[in-house]
Write a structure and sequence with these properties.
Layout (H helix, E strand, L loop, with lengths): L9 H9 L7 H11 L4 E4 L6 H13 L9 E5 L2 H14 L7 E4 L5 H9 L4 E5 H9 L10 E4 L2 H6 L3 H10 L5 E6 L6 H8 L4 E4 L10 E7 L5 H10 L6 E4 L3 H13 L4 E4 L5 H13 L4 E4 L14 E4 L6 H8 L9 E7 L4 H11 L5 E4 L71 E4 L3
Parallel strand pairs: 1-6, 1-7, 2-4, 2-5, 3-4, 5-6, 8-13, 9-11, 9-12, 10-11, 12-13
Antiparallel strand pairs: 14-15
């Protein structure tokens, strides 16, 4: 069924067609008529299925001509990056309408955003913290609101925003349409539904596979004290196009970025302590090719649409299996192939088991030929007894010395010459150079 048969005005259909949309995705085909009906909605579909257009298109259709009476639509997002991306989607999909939009998020001065609100936007796209600032200061009122969208609600819950969401909902008029969109439907989401929605319609698009077939997974067992060295060696051995390195902490992201710059890698960094100007510059630099590598915490793991990401490297194993899926979802998009590599210590083995259970497949354990593993071989990643197989006397706490070099590290790994061999493994057709499969040894047994 084409977009023209979903009840959308021709100006809205033209916006979709201008972006190359020909046929609606399953979530769009079901959600668009539901939103147009005016009923509250809970909709779930995995990342990358077109959820944003599923609510933006019918909302633009509902708005009609611009009115400067006050915001009629509020779209809540968990992060600044997602808010900016939704603003971009609204602008592109609504290019043949006169709808006015403002985005409110932290990391920038309040002044320009306050001025934009005075221009009478139809749509406000906001993060919870910055929106509450405007509401608390009475610089924004939501009494004219017609539609409330809670986007990526599962992520909001993970980030602890439930109280902020409740406070914002209380500021909205009771007579409104509320749309809740989420990649997953955790039990806690029902708490949000109870206080925010009224007799909602439910749409759940089941994922055929949690992880895309276009992504190849691999685990590199390594002691925590050697993670930096292994990361550097992996980056030497592949002709990557663009890499996102995910780490668990902001401090870790800064340290990794520093070491990559020392090795002359162009790199950008995104985490919560960076202001919005810095985060935007890092992301745009990565998109344009100025940076080959983007180092990020999980703030960038969901929703960011960056074309051509060839590799995702998990420097730290995510503690929640769902975060692994969101991280690797940055590569292997739009039918392109991608690689997801995870540096795993024995202590992180239980998280690996949870990830494998979620994605429904075993992830191969790989050894990097020529790398000077402490103890002569990689540690065993054993969920049943995580510490039993680590070399005796090896340190498990990451400690970076002067210049970023880890304490106790001899520095030998830093001087190894690149072998010219790609990193990845398993399928010889993934790389065109070198003897297929010769550079990997798959570790058997766990």
């Amino acid at each position: 069924m084409p977009f023209s048969q979903l009840g959308l005005y021709s100006s809205i259909v033209r916006g979709a067609q201008a972006l190359g949309y020909t046929q609606p995705t399953p979530i769009q085909a079901q959600a668009i008529p539901a939103v147009l009906s005016g009923k509250d909605l809970i909709a779930s579909a995995q990342t990358g299925t077109g959820k944003t257009a599923a609510f933006v298109l019918p909302i633009l259709n509902r708005l009609g001509p611009h009115r400067s009476t006050g915001p009629r639509v509020l779209i809540l997002e968990p992060t600044r990056e997602l808010a900016a991306q939704v603003e971009e989607s609204v602008a592109k999909l609504g290019q043949f309408t006169d709808a006015k939009t403002v985005v409110l998020h932290g990391g920038v001065n309040l002044g320009p955003q306050r001025n934009a609100l005075r221009n009478g936007p139809d749509i406000v796209i906001a993060t919870t913290g910055r929106l509450r600032e405007f509401l608390d200061s009475k610089a924004l009122r939501l009494n004219t609101l017609e539609v409330l969208v809670l986007d990526e609600v599962d992520r909001m819950l993970d980030m602890g925003f439930i109280d902020d969401v409740k406070a914002i909902v209380r500021e909205c008029p009771p007579k409104r349409q509320t749309l809740l969109f989420s990649a997953t439907l955790p039990p806690r989401l029902q708490e949000v539904a109870k206080f925010a929605l009224n007799d909602p319609q439910r749409i759940e698009i089941a994922a055929e596979k949690v992880a895309a077939d276009t992504v190849r997974h691999a685990i590199h067992p390594v002691l925590d004290s050697q993670k930096i060295d292994l990361l550097m060696e992996l980056l030497k051995r592949d002709e990557f196009k663009s890499v996102i390195v995910f780490t668990r902490t902001r401090k870790g992201a800064d340290r990794i970025a520093h070491l990559l710059r020392v090795e002359n890698h162009p790199v950008g960094v995104i985490h919560a302590e960076k202001n919005q100007t810095q985060r935007t510059a890092a992301l745009e630099g990565f998109r344009s090719g100025k940076h080959d590598i983007l180092v990020a915490t999980d703030i960038a793991a969901r929703g960011l649409d960056v074309a051509g990401v060839s590799h995702v490297i998990n420097f730290d194993v995510p503690q929640h299996a769902e975060d692994y899926v969101h991280r690797i979802g940055r590569t292997g998009r739009a039918q392109s192939t991608g690689e997801a590599l995870t540096l795993a210590t024995p202590e992180e083995a239980n998280h690996i088991v949870a990830i494998e259970k979620l994605i429904g497949q075993k992830i191969p354990l790989l050894t990097l030929d020529g790398f000077a593993y402490e103890g002569g071989q990689p540690p065993r990643v054993d969920a049943a007894n995580p510490r039993a197989n680590a070399p005796k006397g090896s340190g498990h706490k990451q400690s970076l010395g002067k210049g970023g070099q880890q304490k106790g590290d001899t520095g030998k790994n830093q001087d190894r010459k690149a072998s010219g061999r790609p990193f990845g493994g398993g399928n010889p057709n993934w790389h065109s150079k070198g003897k297929p499969g010769a550079h990997w040894r798959t570790r058997k047994g766990r």
